[in-house]
Design a protein that fits this description.
With about 90 residues, this protein is an all-alpha fold. The chain is built from 3 helices and no strands. Helix 1 crosses helix 3.
Length: about 90
């Protein structure tokens, strides 16, 4: 019996181009949308560094990760969202 081989595609050198959000949304919706995107980016970066559980991700760890990936320091609300995403991952 042969072992399964994991075939991975190389990641693109640059992220996909961003598309502008549709005009006419209330300001809160833009803020909420951008906060969710930021939380998702941070959660992915934490998973890549080996942080898999919410209790492994205090605000300090999340903010240090944000600095490493070049994202502005997240608020307490965004940090809670990151932990919620990690909890959903478990």
């Amino acid at each position: 019996m042969t072992a399964a081989t994991l075939i991975t595609k190389p990641l693109p050198a640059h992220p996909l181009p961003k598309k502008p959000l549709p005009a006419g949304w209330p300001r809160e919706r833009y803020e909420s949308h951008n906060r969710r995107l930021k939380a998702m980016r941070l959660a992915i970066a934490l998973l890549d560094t080996g942080v898999y559980r919410p209790e492994q991700a205090p605000n300090r760890t999340i903010r240090n990760t944000a600095a490493e990936i070049g994202v502005h320091a997240p608020s307490d609300t965004t940090c809670r969202m990151v932990r919620a995403l990690l909890y959903d991952h478990c």
